[in-house]
Design brief:
450 residues, alpha/beta, 18% strand, 2-enoyl-CoA Hydratase, Chain A, domain 1, OB fold (Dihydrolipoamide Acetyltransferase, E2P), rod-shaped, 3 domains, 14 helices
Length: 450
């Protein structure tokens, strides 16, 4: 129980530390002597619902506070196609100039990042960055099944070439990035009109692009000397970003099942049940944010129910075994192949094996407990030594002293003679309010209590 509590506390501390390091101040202003205000925000890490939420918050903040433009600093390996589509729609629909700047040096705009860059009104890269490699793949890095792959690739090519045509960017590279995973550096991207500028920093980007006409929005921003305001990812979204990793959610689900099962088998301990309930609900919350399938979630819930049933009323391992199978199958079906998310097969099998061993241990202990002699009630008297207080035998019931009490007694079947007061006997059976006793051989006399 203490180890479980320490592990849970360590996980929460790690998440908070990572969040505090990543979040920083919510706003930082870089003043200038010129006119105009530009909101600068990072889009880093995996493209997912958290990045989408932050993008929408930035654009809403810029609209509400009357900023003249937004600059997104992007560095991403790609991510979820559904979140990417929503980010692209939000950028395209924004009624102010949106710049996408691939930075810092050694950063990249890969996979979904290519689409986000192409959707920008102004696309730029920092020296030493690269863009491309947008071929859709499964969450495990493998190619999609042939028919699904053709469907997804053709859809992606149509989307990005339309964006390229609207903004005067290289559609051929965009198609090659999807079909052939082509990737180029900043200078080559500028030469091929993949991006509009190569800039050393945001200020350099605004200086180079000042006065340019931006199609199709028809805007002409003059922001060379604008005031820059940095908007960082808030703490809540940083924590959520760490939480919605499918493998972490699966681990939280397993920890929740173990904690709740421990509480069911050891009522009153409280801490494992509370911690398990928190882990279980966090896992379900994370799965509600990610594009999890209904069948996958249903199988995970079924697995939890089967494990709980095994803990409360052991069914010879059948319930626990069914729970382990449901857990593995549920993990494999939890996300579509095209979603970009998935639970590691090794983790799914390992967690199922761990839970099976845990509930196997519970089952073994339950069987051992059932085989133990009763520790309370009249059944616990069988086999105990006793002392005759009133003669037993001869047709009349006697009295024996056993376990601190006086009991009516008679000789057990097969016993002859009379056992006089003070004789050591052993309780052989209990019949209602009367015990049957037999003499204790001298060589094995254990001495009755007095």
């Amino acid at each position: 129980m203490r180890l479980f509590a320490l592990l849970l506390a360590a996980c929460l501390v790690a998440l908070c530390c990572a969040a505090s390091v990543s979040s920083g101040a919510s706003d930082r202003r870089v003043p200038s002597s010129g006119h105009g205000r530009v909101l600068v925000a990072p889009l880093t890490g995996t493209v997912d619902p958290v990045m989408l939420e932050f993008t929408e918050r930035v654009l809403e903040r810029a609209r509400h506070d009357h900023f003249d433009a937004v600059v997104f600093r992007i560095d991403t390996p790609g991510g979820l196609s559904t979140s990417m589509d929503d980010i692209v729609r939000a950028i395209v629909a924004a009624d102010l100039p949106v710049y996408v700047y691939v930075s810092p040096s050694a950063g990249r705009a890969a996979s979904a990042g290519v689409f986000i860059t192409y959707a920008a009104d102004v696309a730029a890269m920092s020296p030493g960055t690269n863009i491309g490699s947008a071929t859709p793949i499964s969450s495990g890095g493998e190619q999609l099944p042939k028919d699904l792959r053709r469907k997804v690739i053709n859809d992606a090519v149509a989307k990005i070439t339309e964006l390229a045509d609207e903004r005067g960017r290289d559609a051929k590279f965009a198609e090659a990035a999807i079909r052939e995973a082509e990737n180029v550096g900043a200078r080559e991207a500028l030469r091929r009109h993949v991006v509009d500028y190569v800039a050393d920093d945001v200020r350099d980007l605004l200086r180079q692009s000042s006065g340019d006409s931006l199609d199709p929005k028809g805007l002409t921003p003059h922001l060379a000397d604008a005031t820059l305001t940095q908007m960082d990812v808030p703490l809540t979204l940083v924590v959520l970003k760490h939480l919605i990793d499918p493998n972490i959610l699966f681990l939280l689900f397993g920890a929740g099942v173990i904690g709740l099962a421990f509480e069911l088998t050891h009522p009153g301990v409280v801490l494992p049940g509370v911690a398990g309930g928190i882990c279980f609900l966090l896992a379900l919350f994370g799965l509600s944010i990610l594009p999890a399938t209904g069948a996958g979630v249903a199988l995970l819930v079924l697995a939890a129910a089967l494990f709980a049933a095994e803990a409360v009323a052991p069914g010879g391992g059948v319930l626990g075994g069914g729970g382990a199978i449901a857990l593995v199958v549920g993990a494999m079906l939890l996300f579509d192949d095209s979603s970009g998310y998935g639970v590691s097969p090794a983790l799914a099998v390992g967690m199922s094996a761990a839970l099976a061993l845990f509930f196997g241990f519970i089952l073994r202990k339950a069987i051992q407990t059932r085989r133990l002699a009763p520790m309370t009630g009249s059944g616990s008297l069988v086999g105990m030594p006793a002392q005759v207080r009133r003669a037993v035998g001869g047709g009349a019931p006697g009295t024996v002293y056993v376990d601190g009490e006086l009991w009516r007694a008679r000789l057990a079947a097969g016993q002859d003679g009379v056992l006089e007061a003070g004789a050591a006997v052993r309780v052989l059976s209990v019949d209602g309010m009367q015990v049957e006793v037999g003499a204790v051989p001298v060589s094995t006399n254990e001495g009755a209590t007095t």
